[in-house]
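Q: Give me the 3D complex with magnesium ion.
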Amino acid sequence: MRRLIREILTATESADCIEAAGWVRTRRDSKAFSFLEINDGSCMGNLQVIVDAGTPGSEDLTKMGTGASVTVTGRLVPSQGGGQQWEVQATEIRLLGTVPEDYPLQKKGHSTEFLRSIAHLRPRTNLYGAMFRIRSRMSYAVHRFFQERHFHYIHTPIITASDCEGAGEMFRVTTLDPLSQEEKSFEQDFFGKAAHLTVSGQLEGETFACALGNIYTFGPTFRAENSNTSRHAAEFWMIEPEMAFCDLQGDMDLAEEMVKYLVVEALEKQEGDLAIFEKFIDKDLRRRLEFVATHPFERLPYTDAVEILRKSGKSFEYPVEYGLNLQSEHERWLTEEHFKRPVTVFNYPKEIKPFYMRINDDGRTVTAMDLLVPGIGEIVGGSQREERLDVLLANMDRHGLSIDDYGWYVDTRRFGSVPHAGFGMGFERLLMFVTGMQNIRDVIPFARTPGNCEF
Ligand code: 4AD
Ligand code: MG
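A: Here is the predicted complex, encoded as structure tokens.
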């Protein structure tokens, strides 16, 4: 039976007959035998295979260049050379797929920009192989984090008729022909009304939190933001917990606990894959992650953050003033230069936040919170929700939302309303933080950004 190279490399004893399969990374030939390094994607490490001249299948050796696929049967023996513990002495090697000259990954040292243009092949490189193994492991850890805490996983809809964030960044879902000259109305459309791809599962999630207590969603999210930054994608994955009987403090506690949990997961379970990011992307990566895992985060109200920024003496591109949003340069200065650790900013002016956030007693601010991390800025955005029916209705009115569209949401406040809170964590932003990768396009398998929808 074929065994994963990952298992073979951690074997505890020799074996007379094992089978492996993979893609050739390198091959060196001498008269009497050839050395092949093969990789099957199960881990960073390659399996060294020695093929003596005359071994069945060795007649195809010249076709087993970088990228060719092979199967190997042989004896697992302690390696003679340095660099690896085990090697396979082949008794048979079979060529599955050959590689013509124009295989783009034959040479090393391609730029990330070039590799993005061959996103269907880049997971075959060491760096992106590691990236997407980490992504897989971190998804699993997200579920484990919540399941261990008895949160229920809810699949909120991807097609929706509601706009959670109210920022006008939605992709329309329609079956009407956009190029047709005829006048059409939404009544004639597939759903009989305007529909969009979700920008957040929060509102639907809230209805489930108001029934099942603690819930989370983890799914694809879509924003037609025309901001071509290195931290925004048109399609990204968001993790959104929502907790009934919970206030802003509990919400911030959970967000911080989750960031730490996921950082520890990467350090402990993905050590082999993280090493390549430390080597090529960010020399300080491990030290930074270890620091985050073991030190408290900073927390401060928005008003204090604005004061600190104003007194910083730094000349920022965007103005700093009470009532304005913090820009990424401000967020990064706070975490990187000032506090030198992750920072949670809370209680933002109500004017710059969505309708569902709970208004504080001061009447000016809402119970919003953003968790900022060095190198990225905002990684989590959340809030305690407005649970008072009359205040919610007034907020909706202020934001121009109609009760006809949001009656179902308002019902959660009409029937047994409870304080509740939640947040959204951008999964790609988390991966950027954990790996040190600087561009969101490099942490998602196939990136969708303005003007770019390849593959
Ligand atoms: O701060 P946001 O917009 O919050 C919400 O959507 C709330 N409804 C979440 C909630 O309370 N349940 O988005 C949450 C997070 C951001 O902090 C960021 O990490 C990520 O989602 N995010 C993006 N990631 C990649 N590309 C984009 N265009 C993103 N927009 C937001
Ligand atoms: Mg936000």
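A quick observation: The longest helix spans residues 126-148.
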